[in-house]
Amino acid sequence: MFTSSMPYYCLSILLLYFLAVYIPIFPAGGGYSYALAPALTWEFIRSVMEHYWLPFLSLVVVFIGGQAIGMRAMSIYELDADYVRFSRSLGVADNRVIGYIFRNAMLPQVTGLALSIGSLVSGALITEIVFGYPGIGSLLFTSIRQSDYPVIQGVTLLIMIGVLLANFLVDIAYGFIDPRIRATAAGER
Questions:
Q1: CB-based contacts of 186: which residues, under 8 Å, 6+ apart?
Q2: Distance CA 46, CA 41 (A)
Q3: 156: alpha, beta or left, given left = phi > 0 and alpha = psi -120 to 50?
Q4: 69: part of which helix (H) or strand (E)?
Q5: Cα angle at 57 between 61 and 22, to 5 degrees?
Q6: Taking Cα atoms as reference points, which of 73, 101, 75, 80 lies closest to residue 4?
Q7: 128, 137 contact by CB (below 8 A)
Q8: Quick one: CA dihedral 85, 90, 96, 99, positive or negative?
Q9: How does pLDDT run across 108-122, given as a tens digit for each residue?
Q10: Which of 32, 53, 163, 176 is most buried when burial is the number of CB atoms within 10 A of its CB?
């Protein structure tokens, strides 16, 4: 609950202070070490991965908090469903009933996962600015400040394609998660 209500940039600043300044585990900013030139070497890849973790954690921790709250609420809702009571009255094992509950509770979470990519990109903009990370959000921010309309259009198009692709992949994942969707699609042919 605490992490899901915290803004991305607030957690970014806290992680930057604690994990890069107070306890210097991660580098404080940038996309890679300033001593390196971009190249396809193991040293450069290692540097990119070291600089990647703090921005990644600041986005994912907030995102997972909201997903966990939603999954908990949907699981509690599913516990009172008729199929759960019926399964328990038939003596179905609790592990199997829990599997059914989680499969049904997962569907709204998967939908929310695809739809929240847009908000994740907006949080990435501020997170990239806090960490000085050269990503698509900071590119968009710089192009807006400089009125570079072709770059703004291109970045917006990439974000739109990413959200549409995520929604398409969620539709495909629905067939694997919920067997009722597979049965419906097979019956329409």
A1: none
A2: 9
A3: alpha
A4: helix 42-79
A5: 110
A6: 73
A7: yes
A8: negative
A9: 887 777 777 767 777
A10: 32
